Amino acid sequence: MSEYQLYCFAQSGNAYRAALMLNLIGADWKPIWVDFFNAMVQRTPQFRTDVNEMGEAPVLVHDKKKLTQSGVILTYLAGRSGKFKPQGEEEELEALRWIIFDNQKVNGFLGPFRFLKNFAKPAGDPAVLAFLKGRIDGNLAIVNKRLTDRHFLLGNRPTIADVSMTGYLYYPADEFGFDIAKDYPAIGAWLGRMKALPGWKHPYELMPGYPLEKK
Ligand SMILES: N[C@@H](CCC(=O)N[C@@H](CS)C(=O)NCC(=O)O)C(=O)O
């Protein structure tokens, strides 16, 4: 049995953060596919009792531990591996600051936007999509500015803040209807640097369930 198991699915940028981290640190891990779209297992009472009371993927299983929230999972894996770990209190707080901003305002809006555009039945209300797009543009501009004079979010070295920020950013442009890497060149260049790290893989390669079987 692998050392780590990760409940995840290919279309989840939230789960991608954890899957990418496991691959980047060279962990011995296996995915456990969450049938999010058809069986919606994450919403079953059994999943909430046995796997995650919050009803979400990702969930990392390690020995007797079950960890949820990608930011917690990244912190745990950085602590165990020593890789992508912020050094000292100042960097730790700075990484946490960007992880929260990402979870709430960057990928926290991109995820629902992409869901409503590609997967929701009925499709998302155009007014809701327009609202989310406005927030996304504003927040991607903030990240773009941050990366204009830095190689990575905290400076010259990639940390868990960068791994977190990748969330939905490698999914194809046609799933968003706009090209993040082109529209935000500093983000585009940073995505290239993250992609060059040993162990990097695209979410559709790294996690099970792609292409999606629509029922
Ligand atoms: N902040 C959480 C977000 C997790 C999350 O929202 N996951 C989605 C999948 S991408 C989910 O499981 N949603 C539950 C549902 O819609 O039923 C994290 O980063 O782990």
Summarize the structure.
With 215 residues, the protein is an alpha+beta fold. It has helices at residues 13-24, 45-50, 70-81, 88-118, 126-148, 160-166, 180-183, 185-195, 203-206; strands at residues 4-8, 29-33, 59-62, 65-68.
Describe it:
The structure is a single chain. With 215 residues, the chain is an alpha+beta fold. The protein has nine helices and four strands, in the order βαβαββααααααα. A four-stranded mixed sheet has the order 2-1-3-4, covered by helices on one side. Helix 1 runs parallel beside helix 3 (70-81) and helix 5 crosses helix 8. The mean pLDDT is 98. Bound molecules: glutathione. Glutathione binds next to helix 4.
Structural class: alpha+beta
Regions with little confidence, pLDDT below 50 for 5+ residues: none
Number of strands: 4
- Provide mean pLDDT, rounded: 98
Which features characterize this protein?
alpha+beta; 4-stranded mixed beta sheet; binds glutathione; 4 strands; globular; 8% strand; 215 residues
Set down the secondary structure blueprint.
Layout: E1 4-8, H1 13-24, E2 29-33, H2 45-50, E3 59-62, E4 65-68, H3 70-81, H4 88-118, H5 126-148, H6 160-166, H7 180-183, H8 185-195, H9 203-206
Parallel strand pairs: 1-2
Antiparallel strand pairs: 1-3, 3-4
Helix pairs in contact: 1-3, 1-6, 4-5, 4-6, 5-8
The structure holds glutathione.
Residues 12, 14, 42-43, 55-58, 69-70, 103, 111 line the site of glutathione (GSH).
